[in-house]
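Posting for a labmate who doesn't have an account.
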Amino acid sequence: MISEFFKLSNWFLFPALVFALFFGWRAVYIFVHPDIYRIKKWDWWWYQRWFNFVGAFIGWVALSYIWKIDVSKFRIEHFVALIIAFLGITGNLPFAALIGKIGGNPASKKSADSKT
């Protein structure tokens, strides 16, 4: 099933590559506060680009999977794939995967600290 995604006849492959490259390269500028990414080193940048590329690409693979299912046989695993597809193609899957792991958004911590 997954090998079908990588065939040139699959029209999901090309937007997947384009948007995965876009989010891989630009997601840090879109989703991360400039005060944070200005101080990071090359290894952090490399990881963020790889992580965001893979997250967006997985979203397109999940969307391709959802596209091929029979709607009358929609089950919970299809709903999960739909959520993964939405988060991935919008560039939010990497952040959603890390919720609770790192301690949340550093910008929100800054605003919470300033209130006390």
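Reply:
Got it, the structure tokens are right above this. The helical segments are 2-5, 13-31, 34-37, 42-67, 76-89, 93-98, 106-115.
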